Amino acid sequence: MFAEKGYENTSVQEIVNAAGVTKGAMYHYFGAKDDLLYEIYHRLLGLQMRRLEEIAEGPGDAAERLRAAARDVLHTSLLYLDDLTVFFRSTHLLSADRREAVRAERRRYHERFRALIEEGQREGAFGTRTPADVAAHFFFGSLHQIGAWYRPGGPLKAEEVGEHYVDLFLNGLRG
Q: Which residue spans does the record list as DNA-binding (predicted)?
């Protein structure tokens, strides 16, 4: 509902009606509507961070692990497209402390992802003309726009979109 109507335009009553629960039941698990919004961010970032850590510490050279990490973040972002959409439309609506917590989680993710780029640069798999930080920001900036144009059931399947993004990103690093 947040992805379709926006956080501000979705009432607690609409949420409980759609979930088939009472307001009391919702407030048993979530103290406020803001808690639901935070949970969307925290759930997606937590999943992606766990997966990134597994990939980054896994087998293969830096280029192989970066490809796997880029594929994974695209896969999970497209799999949870509504969450991604809400994430980028409504972050500013979180309380200041929660907004900072989300930013800190995102920073940790970006730093780990950037470290894979730097490792690949040290190994010679990627050029060093573009700083790793710029490359990571470029990749995530383009990823964050997917929710504005991609629609499941459209002419491109999620896997195809992911492969195109990953290829463009890694080919840019090699240049």
A: 11-30
* Strands (DSSP E) found in 17-173: none
DSSP sequence for 47-80 = HHHHHHHHHHTSSS-HHHHHHHHHHHHHHHHHHT
The answer to whether the beta carbons of residues 57 and 118 sit under 8 Å apart is: no
Q: What pTM value is reported for the model?
A: 0.87
Q: Which domains does the chain have, with CATH numbers?
A: 33-174 (1.10.357.10)
Q: Which residue is it, tokens 């949970």?
A: 39
| Cβ(87)–Cβ(44) below 8 Å | yes
**Is-contact 158 67, C-beta < 8 A?**
no
Other CB atoms within 10 A of residue 173 CB = 21
Question: Quick one: tokens of 97?
Answer: 């402390």
Q: Which of 76, 84, 17, 21 is nearest to 52 (CA)?
A: 76
